[in-house]
């Protein structure tokens, strides 16, 4: 089988634990692109801190950002599709976070907003710096000039386990998922990496069986199960591994290189 569209998660998949792109992964991805495969990054990051990896690779095309909530053209920065949230539906979550001291941010396709950007705790500021993000002051819902696409809660694993359990009891008008050990994301009910990847594949004229997807966490499940070949990293939770067609090496072992080499360059 020839895989013509390769969808790659970023953190925990493409990048190692130091948030670096290895030379091995870089060279293998470029060779796959040279042979005609189209590369798309599918990430919980926004386009502002995911497009630079495509530029570093010298690749055009698209990034599926915010866990599928916004798909953006790498060259033009055009938003080719997004799933807007109803901001008013976020009121119970913002109130909960403020009451329980849980940090949260609100995202448009290109903007990230927090309550008090100048007064962030050190661990929160460090997290944004590690992910190359600069928070802005959160305005009122009516003052947003662009659609809100994602709400993210950030905290320790224990804190977010409790938050997830509490929020799971509510009537859900949003798609809630764990996008990492320290993050819970809320998006439009129909937004997911899998839904965005399906739409992009159709837009680009690729069949489902021509799509290869590689990821490592719960937010990758929808694209792993959509793809003709869905691959989990060995650093994935067991549920993600079980849903995948196979498991490759970890993000610190160039698992992306291993999978592309096997299924694209030698396939």
Automatic annotation (TrEMBL):
Molecular function in Gene Ontology: hydrolase activity
UniProt keywords, alphabetically: Hydrolase
Record-listed E.C. numbers: 3.1.3.-
InterPro entries assigned to the protein according to its UniProt record, in alphabetical order: Cof, HAD-like_sf, HAD-SF_hydro_IIB, HAD_sf
Listed name of the protein: Cof-type HAD-IIB family hydrolase
Organism: Paenibacillus lacisoli
